[in-house]
């Protein structure tokens, strides 16, 4: 049994031959592009000239990728490694190596939601995690009920306040 595309090409060839006998000629541009490309593949019909190709903007590469966790009430108003009191609703986080006061954009790999946090503690103290967020930051990412979420971390330069565009 022949596939639909094979039958269509055979019919097109027979039709082209019959049309040519009558003096009718099909221009190459008149052929149906879906008959010329394999099923499920797109066919670019008129590619833009090389000198007019649109500029592609690459998404910034994350400084770290991994799993985020969060901590809250159990540590609320206790001293952090930086010496300040932990406020579970503030947009802060614990990181094993970044300097205290660093600002980090945390982007959920699942939803794309972002939050900018300030590093004020050390952690996470669990293997295979890249950052421990305060409850406030976890809620901003929509992960308070989940506990864990895959994230990307972008360290922000001094004066930067916003996350890089995806």
Question: How would you sum up this structure, described in words?
Answer:
The protein is of the alpha/beta class and 166 residues long. It has a 6-stranded mixed barrel. It has 3 helices and 6 strands, in the order ααβββββαβ. It starts with a helix and ends in a 10-residue tail after the last strand.
| Sequence of strands across the biggest β-sheet | 1-5-2-4-3-6
Structural class: alpha/beta
Number of helices: 3
Q: Over all CA atoms, what is the radius of gyration?
A: 29 Å
Cα(first) to Cα(last) distance is 48 Å
**Percentage beta strand:** 15-25%
Topology:
Elements: H1 4-21, H2 33-36, E1 64-71, E2 92-94, E3 103-108, E4 114-121, E5 131-134, H3 135-141, E6 148-156
Parallel strand pairs: 1-5, 2-4
Antiparallel strand pairs: 1-6, 2-5, 3-4, 3-6
């Amino acid at each position: 049994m022949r596939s639909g595309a094979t039958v269509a090409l055979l019919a097109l060839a027979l039709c082209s031959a019959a049309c040519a006998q009558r003096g009718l000629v099909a221009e190459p541009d008149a052929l149906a592009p879906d008959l010329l490309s394999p099923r499920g593949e797109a066919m670019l019909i008129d590619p833009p000239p090389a000198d007019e190709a649109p500029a592609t903007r690459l998404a910034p590469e994350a400084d770290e990728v991994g799993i985020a966790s969060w901590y809250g009430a159990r540590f609320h108003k206790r001293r952090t490694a930086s010496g300040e009191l932990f406020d579970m609703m503030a947009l802060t986080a614990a990181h094993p190596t970044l300097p205290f006061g660093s600002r980090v954009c945390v982007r959920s790999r699942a939803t794309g939601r972002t939050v900018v946090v300030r590093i004020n503690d050390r952690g996470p103290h669990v293997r295979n995690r890249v950052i421990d967020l305060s409850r406030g930051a976890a809620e901003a990412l929509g992960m308070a009920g989940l506990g864990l979420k895959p994230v990307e971390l972008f360290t922000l330069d001094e004066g930067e306040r916003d996350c890089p565009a995806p």
